[in-house]
Amino acid sequence: MNPDLKAIVEVQQLDHQAAELTVAIDSMPKQIQTLQSQLDNFIHAHEERKKRLAANLKERKDLEGDIKANQEKITRHRDQLYQVKTNEQYKAMLKEIEGEEAGIRKIEDQILEKMIESEEIQKLVQDAAARLEGEKARVAAEIKHLQDEQQKDVNERESLQARRKEVAATLSESVLELYERIRTYRKPPAVVEVRNGLCTACNIQLRPQVYNEIRTGETVMVCENCSRIQYYVGAPAEDPALGGGDGTRVSMS
Protein backbone atom coordinates (compact mmCIF):
# COMPACT_ATOMS: atom_id res chain seq x y z
CA MET A 1 0.00 0.00 0.00
CA ASN A 2 1.17 3.53 -0.78
CA PRO A 3 2.86 4.91 2.40
CA ASP A 4 0.73 8.06 2.27
CA LEU A 5 -2.46 6.03 1.96
CA LYS A 6 -1.53 3.76 4.84
CA ALA A 7 -0.58 6.75 6.99
CA ILE A 8 -3.72 8.76 6.23
CA VAL A 9 -5.90 5.79 7.22
CA GLU A 10 -4.08 5.66 10.55
CA VAL A 11 -4.38 9.44 10.99
CA GLN A 12 -8.14 9.17 10.54
CA GLN A 13 -8.35 6.32 13.05
CA LEU A 14 -6.39 8.39 15.56
CA ASP A 15 -8.62 11.42 14.93
CA HIS A 16 -11.74 9.29 15.41
CA GLN A 17 -10.47 7.81 18.68
CA ALA A 18 -9.44 11.26 19.94
CA ALA A 19 -12.85 12.67 19.02
CA GLU A 20 -14.63 9.92 20.96
CA LEU A 21 -12.44 10.65 23.97
CA THR A 22 -13.21 14.37 23.66
CA VAL A 23 -16.94 13.61 23.80
CA ALA A 24 -16.39 11.53 26.94
CA ILE A 25 -14.15 14.18 28.51
CA ASP A 26 -16.59 16.98 27.77
CA SER A 27 -19.49 14.99 29.24
CA MET A 28 -17.76 14.53 32.60
CA PRO A 29 -18.47 18.01 34.07
CA LYS A 30 -22.18 17.58 33.38
CA GLN A 31 -22.20 14.14 35.00
CA ILE A 32 -20.35 15.52 38.01
CA GLN A 33 -22.76 18.46 38.23
CA THR A 34 -25.71 16.05 38.10
CA LEU A 35 -24.30 14.06 41.01
CA GLN A 36 -23.59 17.22 43.00
CA SER A 37 -27.09 18.52 42.28
CA GLN A 38 -28.59 15.25 43.52
CA LEU A 39 -26.70 15.61 46.79
CA ASP A 40 -27.55 19.31 47.08
CA ASN A 41 -31.24 18.52 46.53
CA PHE A 42 -31.10 15.78 49.15
CA ILE A 43 -29.50 18.14 51.68
CA HIS A 44 -31.90 20.97 50.79
CA ALA A 45 -34.93 18.70 51.27
CA HIS A 46 -33.49 17.53 54.60
CA GLU A 47 -32.95 21.10 55.80
CA GLU A 48 -36.45 22.11 54.68
CA ARG A 49 -37.98 19.24 56.65
CA LYS A 50 -36.00 20.27 59.74
CA LYS A 51 -37.32 23.82 59.33
CA ARG A 52 -40.83 22.48 58.90
CA LEU A 53 -40.41 20.37 62.05
CA ALA A 54 -39.29 23.43 64.01
CA ALA A 55 -42.19 25.45 62.58
CA ASN A 56 -44.60 22.66 63.57
CA LEU A 57 -43.34 22.76 67.16
CA LYS A 58 -43.79 26.54 67.29
CA GLU A 59 -47.31 26.28 65.86
CA ARG A 60 -48.24 23.69 68.50
CA LYS A 61 -46.86 25.91 71.27
CA ASP A 62 -48.84 28.85 69.89
CA LEU A 63 -51.99 26.72 69.82
CA GLU A 64 -51.32 25.54 73.38
CA GLY A 65 -50.99 29.20 74.32
CA ASP A 66 -54.37 29.88 72.69
CA ILE A 67 -55.90 27.06 74.78
CA LYS A 68 -54.41 28.53 77.93
CA ALA A 69 -55.78 31.97 77.03
CA ASN A 70 -59.25 30.47 76.43
CA GLN A 71 -59.08 28.55 79.72
CA GLU A 72 -58.28 31.78 81.54
CA LYS A 73 -61.26 33.44 79.89
CA ILE A 74 -63.51 30.56 80.94
CA THR A 75 -62.28 30.79 84.54
CA ARG A 76 -62.82 34.53 84.53
CA HIS A 77 -66.29 34.23 83.01
CA ARG A 78 -67.31 31.52 85.52
CA ASP A 79 -66.25 33.80 88.33
CA GLN A 80 -68.40 36.50 86.77
CA LEU A 81 -71.46 34.18 86.76
CA TYR A 82 -71.97 34.92 90.42
CA GLN A 83 -71.96 38.63 89.75
CA VAL A 84 -74.63 38.82 87.04
CA LYS A 85 -78.02 40.14 88.10
CA THR A 86 -80.37 38.88 85.39
CA ASN A 87 -81.16 35.57 83.75
CA GLU A 88 -80.35 37.08 80.34
CA GLN A 89 -76.87 38.04 81.51
CA TYR A 90 -76.40 34.60 83.05
CA LYS A 91 -77.45 32.83 79.84
CA ALA A 92 -75.23 35.12 77.77
CA MET A 93 -72.28 34.37 80.02
CA LEU A 94 -72.93 30.61 79.74
CA LYS A 95 -73.07 30.92 75.96
CA GLU A 96 -69.78 32.78 76.06
CA ILE A 97 -68.25 29.97 78.09
CA GLU A 98 -69.65 27.31 75.74
CA GLY A 99 -68.13 29.15 72.78
CA GLU A 100 -64.76 29.30 74.48
CA GLU A 101 -64.93 25.58 75.35
CA ALA A 102 -65.83 24.78 71.73
CA GLY A 103 -62.86 26.89 70.67
CA ILE A 104 -60.61 24.85 72.92
CA ARG A 105 -61.84 21.58 71.38
CA LYS A 106 -61.21 22.98 67.90
CA ILE A 107 -57.69 24.01 68.88
CA GLU A 108 -57.07 20.59 70.41
CA ASP A 109 -58.03 19.00 67.08
CA GLN A 110 -55.55 21.29 65.35
CA ILE A 111 -52.84 20.30 67.83
CA LEU A 112 -53.58 16.64 67.18
CA GLU A 113 -53.19 17.21 63.43
CA LYS A 114 -49.92 19.01 64.07
CA MET A 115 -48.70 16.12 66.23
CA ILE A 116 -49.48 13.59 63.48
CA GLU A 117 -47.73 15.79 60.94
CA SER A 118 -44.78 16.17 63.32
CA GLU A 119 -44.40 12.40 63.67
CA GLU A 120 -44.35 11.99 59.87
CA ILE A 121 -41.80 14.78 59.39
CA GLN A 122 -39.69 13.50 62.28
CA LYS A 123 -39.46 10.08 60.66
CA LEU A 124 -38.36 11.63 57.36
CA VAL A 125 -35.79 13.78 59.15
CA GLN A 126 -34.40 10.79 61.04
CA ASP A 127 -34.23 8.66 57.87
CA ALA A 128 -32.48 11.44 55.93
CA ALA A 129 -30.05 12.08 58.80
CA ALA A 130 -29.17 8.38 58.84
CA ARG A 131 -28.56 8.41 55.07
CA LEU A 132 -26.83 11.78 54.78
CA GLU A 133 -23.24 10.74 55.44
CA GLY A 134 -23.69 7.72 53.22
CA GLU A 135 -25.03 9.90 50.40
CA LYS A 136 -22.12 12.30 50.78
CA ALA A 137 -19.65 9.42 50.65
CA ARG A 138 -21.39 7.85 47.64
CA VAL A 139 -21.42 11.07 45.65
CA ALA A 140 -17.82 11.86 46.57
CA ALA A 141 -16.73 8.38 45.45
CA GLU A 142 -18.64 8.62 42.15
CA ILE A 143 -17.26 12.10 41.45
CA LYS A 144 -13.74 10.86 42.22
CA HIS A 145 -14.27 7.94 39.82
CA LEU A 146 -15.49 10.29 37.07
CA GLN A 147 -12.56 12.63 37.63
CA ASP A 148 -10.13 9.70 37.45
CA GLU A 149 -11.78 8.49 34.25
CA GLN A 150 -11.62 11.99 32.82
CA GLN A 151 -7.91 12.29 33.56
CA LYS A 152 -7.32 8.83 32.09
CA ASP A 153 -9.15 9.89 28.91
CA VAL A 154 -7.18 13.16 28.78
CA ASN A 155 -3.91 11.24 29.03
CA GLU A 156 -5.00 8.77 26.37
CA ARG A 157 -6.09 11.58 24.07
CA GLU A 158 -2.73 13.31 24.49
CA SER A 159 -1.01 10.03 23.57
CA LEU A 160 -3.20 9.69 20.48
CA GLN A 161 -2.51 13.29 19.49
CA ALA A 162 1.22 12.75 19.87
CA ARG A 163 1.03 9.63 17.69
CA ARG A 164 -1.11 11.54 15.19
CA LYS A 165 1.55 14.23 14.97
CA GLU A 166 4.21 11.60 14.31
CA VAL A 167 2.20 9.88 11.57
CA ALA A 168 1.10 13.17 9.96
CA ALA A 169 4.75 14.21 9.74
CA THR A 170 5.39 11.27 7.41
CA LEU A 171 2.67 12.36 4.98
CA SER A 172 3.26 14.37 1.86
CA GLU A 173 1.96 17.92 2.23
CA SER A 174 -0.58 17.49 -0.58
CA VAL A 175 -2.25 14.43 0.96
CA LEU A 176 -2.37 15.96 4.44
CA GLU A 177 -3.90 19.16 3.05
CA LEU A 178 -6.42 17.11 1.09
CA TYR A 179 -7.40 15.16 4.20
CA GLU A 180 -7.79 18.30 6.31
CA ARG A 181 -9.85 19.97 3.58
CA ILE A 182 -12.22 17.01 3.32
CA ARG A 183 -12.59 16.91 7.12
CA THR A 184 -13.52 20.58 7.07
CA TYR A 185 -16.14 20.47 4.35
CA ARG A 186 -17.45 16.91 4.47
CA LYS A 187 -19.26 14.85 7.05
CA PRO A 188 -16.90 12.16 8.43
CA PRO A 189 -15.27 9.95 7.40
CA ALA A 190 -12.79 11.67 5.10
CA VAL A 191 -11.08 8.38 4.21
CA VAL A 192 -13.41 5.56 3.16
CA GLU A 193 -13.08 1.93 2.24
CA VAL A 194 -14.05 0.70 -1.20
CA ARG A 195 -15.90 -2.60 -1.02
CA ASN A 196 -17.52 -4.70 -3.74
CA GLY A 197 -16.76 -1.97 -6.24
CA LEU A 198 -18.65 0.65 -4.23
CA CYS A 199 -17.59 3.75 -2.30
CA THR A 200 -18.87 2.96 1.19
CA ALA A 201 -19.55 6.65 1.89
CA CYS A 202 -21.83 7.54 -1.04
CA ASN A 203 -22.55 4.04 -2.48
CA ILE A 204 -21.48 5.07 -5.97
CA GLN A 205 -20.19 2.14 -8.05
CA LEU A 206 -16.74 2.60 -9.56
CA ARG A 207 -15.58 1.75 -13.06
CA PRO A 208 -13.63 -1.54 -13.09
CA GLN A 209 -10.32 0.07 -14.03
CA VAL A 210 -10.65 2.69 -11.28
CA TYR A 211 -11.66 0.06 -8.76
CA ASN A 212 -8.70 -2.14 -9.72
CA GLU A 213 -6.31 0.79 -9.37
CA ILE A 214 -7.65 1.53 -5.89
CA ARG A 215 -7.22 -2.13 -4.99
CA THR A 216 -3.53 -1.98 -5.86
CA GLY A 217 -3.09 0.75 -3.23
CA GLU A 218 -0.23 2.27 -5.18
CA THR A 219 -1.61 5.81 -5.24
CA VAL A 220 -4.08 8.00 -3.36
CA MET A 221 -7.45 8.26 -5.11
CA VAL A 222 -10.58 10.22 -4.28
CA CYS A 223 -14.18 9.43 -5.09
CA GLU A 224 -15.39 11.49 -8.03
CA ASN A 225 -18.84 11.72 -6.45
CA CYS A 226 -18.14 12.57 -2.79
CA SER A 227 -14.44 13.57 -3.05
CA ARG A 228 -13.38 11.38 -0.13
CA ILE A 229 -10.06 9.56 -0.12
CA GLN A 230 -10.56 5.89 -0.97
CA TYR A 231 -8.68 2.75 0.03
CA TYR A 232 -9.15 -0.99 -0.30
CA VAL A 233 -8.72 -3.74 2.30
CA GLY A 234 -8.80 -7.42 1.42
CA ALA A 235 -7.51 -9.96 -1.08
CA PRO A 236 -8.24 -8.89 -4.70
CA ALA A 237 -9.29 -12.42 -5.62
CA GLU A 238 -12.11 -12.29 -3.08
CA ASP A 239 -13.61 -9.09 -4.47
CA PRO A 240 -13.94 -8.98 -8.29
CA ALA A 241 -14.26 -5.57 -9.92
CA LEU A 242 -17.75 -4.34 -10.82
CA GLY A 243 -18.71 -1.80 -13.50
CA GLY A 244 -19.90 1.83 -13.30
CA GLY A 245 -18.82 5.06 -11.53
CA ASP A 246 -15.46 6.88 -11.67
CA GLY A 247 -12.51 8.03 -9.55
CA THR A 248 -9.87 10.77 -9.67
CA ARG A 249 -6.14 10.44 -9.04
CA VAL A 250 -4.52 12.83 -6.56
CA SER A 251 -1.16 14.28 -7.45
CA MET A 252 1.50 13.28 -4.89
CA SER A 253 3.90 16.06 -5.83
What report would you give on this structure?
With 253 residues, the protein is α+β, with helices and mostly antiparallel strands. The protein has two domains: 14-169, Orthogonal Bundle (Helix Hairpins); 175-249, no CATH class. Helices cover 73% and strands 7% of the residues. It contains four helices and five strands; from the N terminus they run H-H-H-E-E-H-E-E-E. The chain has helices spanning 3-81, 87-169, 173-185, 208-216; strands at residues 191-195, 198-199, 221-223, 229-232, 247-249. Strands 2-1-4-3-5 form a five-stranded mixed β-sheet. The longest helix is centred in the middle third of the chain and has 83 residues, at 87-169. The chain is rod-shaped, with a radius of gyration of 41 Å. Mean pLDDT is 91; it is low at 236-253.
